[in-house]
Amino acid sequence: MKDWLIQRLHRTPFIGGLLSCARDDFFEASQELFVNFIVGTAPIWTGALFILLHVDESRNFIEILSANIRQGELIIYCTTFLAPIFYIIFRERKMKGRFPSSSSINLLSCLILLTVTGIFALQRAGYDMNPDLIFIISISLFIISLFLLLLSITYNNSRIPGAPDEFQHQDTQFQKKLESHMEK
Question: How is the chain split into domains, by residue range?
Fold first, then answer.
């Protein structure tokens, strides 16, 4: 029964390949996504923080943050987080194994990309769109985009032999070069 369940889980679109990934692959991908998320969305959350501290102390941070993304600003961020997925899936490298769920991830990424670019184009063309619906769609697609990027980075890490060790080595080398440069 357990083998049957594991076999079924391996065939599950999107997440089935996670069973074959090492914990370090997922941990490294999570760290990379976290840094990309914090830096990539900095204009949104720092703007909300600035407004809270200097302009409008009557509202809380979440209300101000929500107002900052109310018009669908997150749809632009979706494309930013989808771009690396296409690069990861389509680049040619000698790697072990195949990219799990690449067709599913690619198809969903394309659908999200078409949807957000369509919404953006309609907004910029001046079409009257329901702001509540745009808000819900933008948040939903943004979260899905983040999830797809996390999966893609994890799967990519699992295909690179010794990826977490190599990334750590590169970080160490960079830090040593930076320290020697700073000493000069």
Answer: 23-159
